[in-house]
Write a structure and sequence with these properties.
Order of helices and strands: HEEEEEEEEEEHHHEEEEEHHHHHHH
Structural class: alpha+beta
Radius of gyration: 26 Å
Number of strands: 15
GO molecular function, one term: cysteine-type exopeptidase activity
Shape: globular
Protein name: Dipeptidase
Distance between the termini: 45 Å
Keywords: Signal
Helix content: 25-40%
Strand content: 15-25%
Family: Belongs to the peptidase C69 family. Secernin subfamily.
Strand order of the largest sheet: 3-8-9-10-11-12-13-15
Organism: Cochliobolus sativus (Common root rot and spot blotch fungus)
Largest sheet: 8 strands, antiparallel
């Protein structure tokens, strides 16, 4: 079971406010009786797998949680107590969302076999409007990390989320959910905006399939405290009644989605985020695959009918040259001239090619061979792009090897993404300088000297 959670639960390479999704398949529907959890998303961001060792903590140790004033729904950070002991876990870390301090976790799996996955889950405008400014509490990544660090079962993970929200509050960007699973079962947890500490959870059993795109929970018992299959904040039903979002005297059952999701005409729980396939269609397709194998779900998670994003499975120039940028800016005095000379050399070679390529294409057009001219231009463009990608790999590999073999590799210092040029270290080869002015026109500013 653990191997499936590792292989599938960590396929999550991204998360966006309108792009991430997750799969759950109960153990009665899999070929070997394993619970399966998977997911991915579409944001462009730095991502890396990281193993966090088990660790004992001092009695007064704390962790920083929440969002900053730069978030789309502003907040302020706070310190909460760390657990005496945290488990070993594997996490997909990433660095996206302004105002949500990196590194964030998109989910992972811990030494106890508990896996968690973040999935967006919007709330109705009324909740977003009543969110305090600034908001405080744990955000979605904080909650996922707490589960990975502290939960021994999926149920315990849900209880931890509920306790954290009750004790410290919840901060977000408009609503979020989590898929949590262990060897026996899964849970959907939906955390609500609004500053009311609202959340709800539904158990997923061995015969269940759930696709969250976005996260959802539908019918929910008003006496959920007496059911082993549901959990929630004490006010999850009463608050909806107080706001007039559900009438307890009506014949309609209490429904979390109907009460707390966006109130758009025709918007239902199982078709809310679809590009090409709805959640309903995805769930039906997944169930039809039973008994589902690990390979089946891996293929299903990256199905092009769900998402049109393809960069995460290919070599991506943006990521390769970003790596070149990071290494270059770690010591621009040493590396920038070399990198610039290589880039200029490549550009000059391309300019030199333009004369004969354009002349040849023009000759073909004049001879009435427009398709041949188009083929030539397309072939040259593709070939040159491949060479540019190869150049990026060469530079990244060379810088990576040199920096590491000479003992200069280190993590960046500080926690700021941007700096006005007054001394903090940033990923910028022009810290303290105005890039629109020549070097001899720069104002004298205190320069940050990077340690070797």
């Amino acid at each position: 079971m653990l191997s499936h959670l590792l292989a599938i639960g960590l396929l999550s390479l991204a998360k966006t406010s309108q792009g991430s999704y997750g799969f759950y398949v109960g153990k009665a529907l899999t070929h070997d009786g394993s619970v399966m959890l998977g997911g991915t998303g579409e944001e462009v961001s730095s991502h890396w797998l990281q193993i966090f060792p088990a660790k004992d903590h001092k009695a007064n140790d704390t962790i920083v949680v929440g969002v900053t004033e730069d978030a789309v729904m502003p907040g302020k950070l706070m310190n909460i107590s760390q657990a005496p002991h945290t488990f070993r876990y594997l996490s997909m870390e990433y660095s996206d969302f302004e105002g949500f301090p990196a590194p964030l976790t998109n989910g992972g799996v811990n030494e106890k076999g508990v896996a968690v996955r973040d999935i967006w889950a919007q709330n109705r405008d009324d909740l977003i409007a009543m969110t305090p400014n600034p908001q405080t509490g744990l955000q979605y990544s904080d909650l996922a990390r707490v589960v990975l660090e502290r939960a021994s079962t999926a149920r315990e993970g849900v209880e931890l989320i509920g306790q954290m929200i009750a004790d410290y509050g919840y901060a977000d960007y408009g609503g979020n959910s989590h898929l949590i699973a262990d060897a026996s079962e899964g849970w959907v947890v939906w955390e609500m905006s609004g500053g009311q500490k609202l959340w709800a959870a539904e158990r997923l059993g061995e015969n269940d399939v759930r696709v969250l795109y976005p996260g959802y929970i539908e019918d929910f018992p008003v006496d959920f405290e007496n059911s082993p299959d549901y959990m929630g904040s004490p006010n999850i039903v009463s608050f909806a009644v107080e706001q007039g979002w559900w009438n307890p005297n009506s014949t309609k059952p209490f429904n979390i989605f109907n009460a707390y999701a966006p109130q758009e005409e025709g918007y239902t729980a199982r078709d809310g985020g679809a590009k090409y396939m709805s959640q309903a269609a995805l769930e039906d397709a997944t169930r039809a695959m039973a008994p589902v194998t690990e390979k089946d779900l891996i293929e299903h998670v990256r199905d092009y009918r769900i998402s049109d994003d393809e960069a995460e499975a290919t070599q991506f120039a943006g990521r390769i040259f970003k790596k070149v940028l990071y290494y270059t800016c770690s010591d621009p005095e040493s590396y920038l001239p070399v990198v610039q000379n290589m880039l200029h050399g490549f550009e000059n070679a391309s300019f030199a090619d333009m004369e004969w390529v354009e002349r040849a294409a023009h000759t073909m057009v004049e001879a009435g061979q427009q398709e041949h001219a188009l083929d030539l231009l397309t072939f040259y463009s593709h070939a040159r792009a491949e060479k540019a990608l190869a150049l990026g790999r060469t530079m990244a590999d060379a810088l990576d090897a040199y920096v590491k073999l000479t003992g200069q590799f280190r993590m960046p210092s500080g926690d700021r993404i941007n700096d006005p040029g007054l001394g903090a270290e940033t990923v910028n080869c022009l810290v303290g300088w105005d890039p629109d002015q020549p070097a001899d026109k720069q104002k004298p500013l205190k320069r940050f000297r990077r340690s070797k």
